[in-house]
Amino acid sequence: MSYDIEYTTENELILSEEVQKERFFEAYNLGLFTDAEGRVPERVKYTSLEYMKIGNYNDIMSIDTLQMQAAQRENTFFETGVVPKVSEFDNHEIHIDEHMRYVLQMKFQILKFKKPEFAGLLERHIGEHKQVIQAQEQNKFNQMQMMQGGPQ
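Given the sequence above, the corresponding structure tokens read:
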């Protein structure tokens, strides 16, 4: 009889929230989050503000941050079959970006397998955002044509 059982465990301290925050700030201080021009992306700045638990974080959030959070909430709604409407107040580029971040995650692939109708709702929602952007671009083009005295 052989009892060749090997247990591998991870130290819970390594995964604690405090250790994750500490590692985040170490990486931040080392400049690991900077882009090619040496700038820190807005997304990383917002994450660091959240980790620092600055007083009224909600009061200093930019509109873009609020747009990102709204799109992230919408992603969660789709998991339960709730379909949020595309709003005139949405920043459609930010919403598409956040929805695409979700679509590229394993969580969405599982949703697509288990509840393809819910996944389809999100895919159609992304298409609606894209249609709004196309309509806005067409309107801008038409206005430019009119201002230049071109064909209408």
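The helical segments are 17-29, 42-52, 57-60, 63-79, 92-103, 106-114, 116-147. Try to locate this feature in the token string yourself.
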